[in-house]
Amino acid sequence: MWWFWWFWRTDGGPVTPPSTQTSQKPKVFTLTAGDNYVSGSGVANSTINVTLPNSTVLTTTVDSANNWIIPLKPRLNQGDIIKTTQTETR
Fold it and tell me: What fold does the segment set 18-89 form as a domain?
C-alpha cells in the first residue's frame, strides 16, 4: 500500500516537505552502571532516540554545540544495553 502526502502553501502552490534520513550513529559517551543520564554528540538540530532495555524510547535534540543528554529513570544496571539513532532533517 502506498501513501502520498502533499503539502500546500497558503497561496495554493505545492510545497515540498523537508526530508528526513537516519544518519550515522550518534556518539555515546562512556556509560557505567548507576548512571542516571546518557549523553553524547551528534549533528546539530538532529533528533536522538535512545531505546532502553525495557523498550522505552527517549528522545532529545542535539544542541548547537553538537551535544545531547537524556536523563534516565531508573538508572542503568550492569550489562544493560541501549540503542541510539540519530535522524537529521535536511
Answer: Immunoglobulin-like (2.60.40)
